[in-house]
Each structure stands twice: as structure tokens, then as C-alpha cells.
Amino acid sequence: MRCRIILACATGASDKDVAAQLGLTPHAVGRWRKRFVEHRIAGLGDMPRSGGHRTVTDEQVAAVVKRTLETFD
Predict the structure, then answer these.
(1) Least crowded by CB within 10 Å, which of 14, 18, 45, 46?
(2) Is the pTM of this model over 0.90?
């Protein structure tokens, strides 16, 4: 969705028009447009958030996904 926002903005459309086209709020479109302008492609990724540190590693997530996909009833 983030990429769709940026591509639609690249046509010169306003935040309001892009929001209506994609079913989003103008505020959300403006936020992603701003992040893209400031950080380019890196701005479309997830940025650090406030709160506690992660308690689950990427490896643990991958292991659970693998086990889930390999389990058949």
C-alpha cells in the first residue's frame, strides 16, 4: 500500500485524491508522502517505534512459520 501511495502521488495527485482512490485517509497519504520525501525508499519500511524491545527474534518467527507450514492434519 505504501508503494501504491507513492506511485499515485508521483502523478501529481493531491493527498485527498490519492486517499479517495486507495480508500485511505488524507492524513495517512500525507504521512507516507512526507516519509518518502525525507528518507526515499528507506522511508517506506518500518521505522523504530516506542515501547519495549522485541522479545521474539526473527529466527524464532521463521521457525514458527516453518513449523506451521509443514504441519498437516
Answers:
(1) 46
(2) no
